[in-house]
Amino acid sequence: MENENQKTAQNDQPVANIAVKTSFLQSNTAKMIMVGFLTLVLLIPLSFVEELIFERAQRKKEVVKEVAQLWGEDVFFYGPVLRVPYKSYSETSVIDPNTKQTIIERKATIDYAYFFPDQLRNTSNIKKNTSLKRGIYNNVVYTADMKFDGSFGKLNFEKLGIKEEDLLWDKAALVVKTTNLKSIKSDLNIKLNNQTFTFESKAEEDNFYGTLETNRFDYKTLASNNKLDFNFTMKYNGSNSVKFIPVGKTTQINLNSDWESPSFEGMFAANDTTKSVSDKGFHADWKILDINRSFSQQYTTKVPNLNSYSFGVKLIETVDQYQQNERAVKYGFLVIGLTFLIFFLIQSVNKINIHIFQYTMLGLALIMFYTLLISITEHSSFSLAYLIASVAVIAMIVLYSISFLKTKKFPMFIGLALGGLYSFIYVIIQLENYALLVGSIGLFIILGLVMYFSRKIDWNNGNS
Questions:
Q1: Which of 92, 135, 270, 395 suits a disulfide with 284, CB 3.0-4.6 Å?
Q2: pTM over 0.70
Q3: Average pLDDT in the 231-248 region?
Q4: How many CA atoms lie within 13 A of 138 on its CB side?
Q5: DSSP strand pairing (102-115 vs 262-266)
Q6: How far apart are CA 118 and CA 114, in angstroms?
């Protein structure tokens, strides 16, 4: 009998140890550690999804750049500028080998004087073109119809130190510097005091601008009253932006477009009283005087680089689909964490056992939302893709939850909670100015709800 009692005592000791171990693994502390670790592990596939979005966005940029190079790129317009050649002289001392006397030789070279107009006016109509499609990408470009007119006044050669007798009036020309020469789609004729001249492209002087130049004319004959009026039109295929250099003593620019998301850029702001932006397009005016910019109206040797004085409009997409996808993925950790927290609270309050494998399946379903979102977005709008992906993932999680929770009450609650969470994130993604405010208030409310529903859990009891 004594031996039997000793054997029983020996057998009881391991059983007690096993019971302790089992109790710890079933405790809230152990479950929280496992769920927390799983949440961190799921950040790895989430980072892969974010990398996928980045790769697809880069691919789109490459396609857009390729199409822009074929269709037309940014338009910068600098001119027109009047160019008048003149003679300049240089003197050198030469020793006569026979007489050994020093002789002064005077050599004439041709230089150029450049004059900006007194008046420069432009009216441009920019029309969006969405017909270009490369693969799955719709490339948005534009066609710009530009009308220019203005006048040159009396030319001030005294400021440049040039004498009247050194001027070559009969070799004057009008010069325009502009980017995107290959995408000009109109005949380039210009009227100078009602006489028609033709622009021809010349060898580029730099890597940024191309040069258009009229054939030579006699300035004194053409502008007998010291005034040279001009007007011409240009039609561009372009993309991204339209900008001007305010070379006139008075420069007036009027832009009209059906582009709904302009960004006005450059040194000079558009007129606030006339500027308007709506879903149908925008209108903007600029009036810039010579006292508003610190450069002269005349130069010698070459036309100066005045790009720092440029202004105009950039035609942008406020938030493209890949940016929206990227912003959605940034909330992935929040979605996974809050979803696991809901399941953990249901498990703890209602004494329901949820296996770590089931948490893993739920986490992978949540990550699938983002792969669905980006793949559907590339073939439709972001809003529609978001709706389809969220409904599909919520339905999958609800149906899977019913299988192991053995009730419909909790899965339906989870479905409503996920629907509210996805709706909340969608609103934040669409907002720009108030995203931080709305996000902070939403997270504050979520924290309050978690504190409320977790108040009945006895965290001090390892078996709770």
A1: 270
A2: no
A3: 90
A4: 14
A5: unpaired
A6: 13
